[in-house]
Amino acid sequence: ESDTASEISFQFNRHKKTPSIGSHSSDMASVSSVSGSVLSVYSGDFGSVDAQGTVEFALDYDEKNREFQVHVSQCKDLAVVDEKKGRSDPYVKTYLLPDKARMGKRKTSVKKRTVNPIYNEVLRYKIEKMVLLIQKLNLSVWHNDPLGRNSFLGEIEIDLASWDWSNRKLNWYPLKPRSLSAVNGVDHRGVMSLSIKYVPPGSLGKRPKNPPSGEVHIWVRDIKDLLQLRPSGVDSFVKCYVLPDTSKKSYQKTRVIKRDTNPVFNHTIVYDGFHTEDLKDACVELTVWDHEKLTNHFLGGIRLGLGTGLSYGMCVDWMDSTQEEVAFWQEMMLAANEWIEGLLPLRSL
Predict the structure, then answer these.
(1) Where in the cell is it found (predicted)?
(2) Structural domain spans, the chain
(3) CATH of domain 39-182
């Protein structure tokens, strides 16, 4: 059924109702660092002001340092958010699209009480030139609210493939209303084909391989339509954890499939040490990554569980499965010893 297989134990004391956060906080830091960078381009927009005004900036690529630079100079005639006080507290934010999670956001300082802010700041991205050329730059202006209720003031989007890189001068650009694609949350990351199976303890009778405890089998088949981060494609692999265990014993990964946006992995992972009651508190996290020499870049993932927000009596942010993911997990729980097949869209975690 698969060309590679691995088997490890589910390492978590299921009898401990209040597990120590410290036992896995360092491992979870890597997950939270990804989660914090994949917020919507328009997250926190509570305003209803119309976009107006202009922004002055310049683009450059430093070949020596392999760095994309956005020199944000100033804005003029921005919309007034607080009409009673006649003020706005604007700042500028940038993303590289389509995969805003990969490089994250950059933003300037906040300028208080002005609709004509002057920044003279450089926002920097460490990125290869050929990767940059298949991106779009989204530059938006926001009013900063102390309570986090920030208001959108306008944006501009630039296709970097057609940008004139000999133009390093500061130029003025009109701010526009938000684009429909971003408002509607278009964020296609690909679709994973996989199968899962639960083998309860003692369910195989007197067979020699009858597991003393339950097992969860995860068969990662393939993925369609991954984000293409470079002209040659993407070098992808899949990581797997059974949360809340984020130790090295829980960590498994597939081999890297190079230069392919439709990789076939055909990799099976077996986790033992499961009791039936663990299925409602555990979560299988599968994440897809682009492999590079210096760092790996998050492409998308899924979380298989009941999505209750709780694990062994503790509130956790990773127990957030979508309806499709919950239904897939529930079907596995109800059909012991049977492979359950599914197609699940990758998402920002």
Answers:
(1) Cell membrane
(2) 39-182, 190-346
(3) 2.60.40.150
